[in-house]
Amino acid sequence: MTITQAVHRYVENRRALGMKFGSAAVILKSFSKACEPSPVEAVDSERVRAFLFAGGTETRNTGQKWVTLRGFYRFAVSRGMVASSPLPTTIPRATKLFQPYIYSREEIRRLLESSANLPVKKLQPHTVRMLVLMLYGTGLRCSEALRLRVRDVDLMERVLHVHETKFYKDRLVPIGSELVSALRDHAVIRRLLGHPEDAEAPFLTDDNGSSVSLQLAEQAFRRLCRIAHVRREDHDRFQPRLHDLRHTFAVHRLIAWYESGADLDRMLHRLSTYLGHVDLKHTQHYLTMTPELLQQASRRFEQFAGEVAQ
After folding, report:
1. Which of 193, 274, 291, 293 is surrounded by the fewest CB atoms within 10 Å?
2. Phi/psi-derived region of residue 102, left when phi > 0, alpha when psi is between -120 and 50, beta in every other case
């Protein structure tokens, strides 16, 4: 059995168990391509390390590659495809962990204002602005926002119907009055431009009225960041991303709850459900400790300590 055939069997097995297995499948496809045309049992530790440490150094993807290959080789050993795993016994550690970028409220304002100055390249400026508003205002995954159909945007009930989520679950996302108003304005603009309005038509469209691809959205957002002068100074390689708007939504929401004195134990479970997570541990990944969040946490602790001391 070739390495490609073995990888195909593993991916099909994972998907049959209800997993989307998107990014892992890409990694495994790249691995099998690097090892072809070898039989699966002929792939040795040297070739595995060459794949893990492409260019001879660790990257932020090295650990993800290792975890993905660990699952594959556990499967391969259990099915008798190989006698043992050629993986290193411990997970490689990247020299610098990637940290999502948390936009300030001022940067969000600049992004929205600067969208009017975007050059039209397959994607209208008002569509890019609507995407930024939607991601920051709801915490949707970018792919979820781009998949929204006209029927999914219920402005009367003030709710978005999100389908085909990461965990194969549909969910309803309530939205505030300001976002409802922005969505209503966008609906008017797309109608004036003659874009399809049937129930299954994409709500966010390119210039041809078709669905917006993730690649096109990310390209437009990178141009928007340059125009708005939004960039991270702590790392040249990893600049602000569209997906970081989801992280920012979660952090800003938590800060607002700190400021209002809300019951965080109860509200965090609501946030987890709102984001479409099946477990609170997945939400924790989005709660990056910013200086503002640390300040609010410190204030809450001081208040708690003062009450205990009385």
Report:
1. 291
2. beta
300: in domain: yes
266 is catalytic: no
126 is catalytic: no
Query: Within this chain, do residues 189 and 255 fall inside the same structural domain, yes or no?
Result: no
Among 246, 247, 252, 253, the one annotated catalytic: 246
Of the candidates 49, 39, 42, the residue with the CA atom closest to the CA atom of residue 5:
39
Note whether 38 and 116 are same-domain residues.
no
Domains held by the chain: number: 3
166 catalytically annotated: yes
Residues 6 or more apart whose CB falls under 8 angstroms from that of 306 comprise: none
Q: What secondary structure letter does DSSP report for 95?
A: S
If you average pLDDT over every residue of the chain, what do you get?
Answer: 84
Q: Where are the beta strands (DSSP E) in 109-230?
A: 153-154, 159-162, 171-174
> How many Å separate Cα 28 from the centre of its chain?
20
Instruction: Judge whether 147 counts as a catalytic residue.
Output: no
**In sequence order, which residues have a C-beta less than 8 Å from that of residue 214 and are 6 or more positions away?**
142, 143, 146
Taking 80 as the threshold, does the pLDDT of residue 287 lie above it?
Answer: no
Give yes or no: 274 in active site. no
Q: In this predicted model, what pLDDT tens digit does every residue of 26-47 receive, in sequence order? A: 999 999 999 888 899 999 998 8
**For the residues 250-279, what does the mean pLDDT come to?**
77
Q: Give yes or no: 243 in active site.
A: yes
Sheet of 153-154, strand order: 153-154, 159-162, 171-174
Contact between 179 and 134 (Cβ < 8 Å): yes
Structural domain of 60: 3-78
Q: Looking at per-residue confidence, does 86 or 270 come out higher?
A: 86
Q: Are 169 and 139 in contact (CB under 8 A)?
A: no
**Active-site residue, selected from the candidate residues 122, 166, 171, 241:** 166
